Amino acid sequence: MKTWFFDSPDPEHTFACGADLGRSIGRDGLVIALVGPLGAGKTVFVKGLADGLGIDARLVSSPTFVIAQQYPIPVGPEALHHVDLYRLESSRELEAIAFDDMFAPGQVLAVEWADRFPDELGKHLLQIEFEGPTPAEEDAAKAGAPWRGRRARITAEGADPQRILGDWAQRVDSVRADGRSGVVAGSTPESKLLLMLILGISFASVAPLDLIPDPPRCSSLIEVEGDELGTLRARCGEPTAAGFVPVSGIARILAGERIDLNRASTALLRSLPQIGPTRAQAIVRERDARKGGRFASIDDLESVRGIGPKTLARLRHWLMVGTATEFREFERTDFQRDD
Questions:
Q1: What is the pLDDT of residue 164?
Q2: What is the pTM of this model?
Q3: CA 148 to CA 150: how far, in whole Å?
């Protein structure tokens, strides 16, 4: 068994390390077990992994609610499977997503919360364990002390995972030797987010987010599949194409954009920081009771019981209020789901 470590000061570096791993994986594929606390960067890492495999990272989102996502790989292995075990109560539920088929040759399987059912992943794998900051480190960082960032501990079991780990470590270490940050050349990240929790998880940071350092590979994304949370799957396309439906809801959050407070469904509101089922329902009730069934500004949320200045300050980074004209235009469309 081989062991290796890397430190990541920010999400852009985590993304870049994931991309380097993707470039190290051959046609036979790989099983990757991702372990770590909430907001440790597991999904950001998988987005980078996808980028290194040649997949548009903007299409990759957290599978917390859908359990599994699949993305075809243009060259090399056949597909990337992104699985999240967080919501599963029993390993028997894995049968419903054809989990065993994801171990076939030519498949890259990345499993978040892999420590929930470790026996289901087999003996030959690459395990990446992300450490969260200790309470002492958090306190020191708040006081202005420098923080080394997150540390990832990687272990490889089996000949192929060990070979891939060796190549991956060499790629990352060569970046360090050159004195570069590890972010892909030509990237223009707008901000850094240290702790990101998506889909019903409390957000610990409130900075605007750019998860994808690389320039976009297509002009626009068209929704392929969605539900009350918003876009679940998307593809590249043109805004002028017939049947064009822009990405919405949770996909906008993942892209670092804001969602319209007056269009958001209860389920989507629950995905925001410190908004559980009770507060989400209270927001919708307050919205429905207002003139025109809409809030005039984000500040109106303070009229909702349980939302004070601190909570409102966190929510501002994820919400917007469109104009009344935009709202009426939206109502005239055929959308069956809130944005």
A1: 95
A2: 0.53
A3: 7
Residue that is written with structure tokens 């999240």 in the block: 84
Q: How far apart are CA 50 and CA 118, in angstroms?
A: 23
Q: Where are the domains of the chain?
A: 2-177, 220-331
Cα(301)–Cα(283) distance, integer angstroms = 7
Sheet holding 29-35, edge to edge: 2-8, 150-157, 125-130, 29-35, 107-112, 79-84, 68-72
Select from 79, 338, 26, 41 the least CA-distant residue to 198.
41
Give me the CATH topology for the region 2-177: Rossmann fold (3.40.50)
Question: Amino acid identity of 20?
Answer: D
Checking if the pLDDT of 211 tops 70, the result is: no
HSE (CB half, 13 Å, CA atoms) of 65?
Answer: 18
> What is the DSSP annotation of 94-112?
GGGGTGGGGGSTTEEEEEE
- CATH for 220-331 is 1.10.150.320
Average pLDDT of the residues in 302-312: 85
SS3 for 333? coil
Contact 81, 3 (CB under 8 A): no
For residue 118, pLDDT beyond 80: yes
